[in-house]
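In the current project phase, we have settled on a layout for protein records. One protein thus recorded is set out beneath this paragraph:
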Amino acid sequence: MRHTRSATRAALTTSHALAAAACGLLGLLRYAAKAGLTVLIGYTKEDGTESVRPIAPEKVWRSQAGYWCLRAACLLRGEHRTFRVGRITNLETA
């Protein structure tokens, strides 16, 4: 467990490609939520519109439909939002 936390911590200080290789997107989002970090995500909405959003992740879970979801404070909109993890195209520390 300590090794995974260390890898996640180290990954958050490197590029997204290295981070994904070290512990995966779900691991990064869970770590960011637990550590209270703000991250910047690239996100594609259902209609195909892309945006970049600064968020403060809070919770990651799997929906009944089988999608991984992320509950976060969206700092762009000033509201809590639910994001589908599969639509996150990029992740970096803010």
Summary: Residues 16-35 form the longest helix (20 residues). Residues 14-21 have pLDDT under 50 and may be disordered. The chain is about 35% helix and 40% strand.
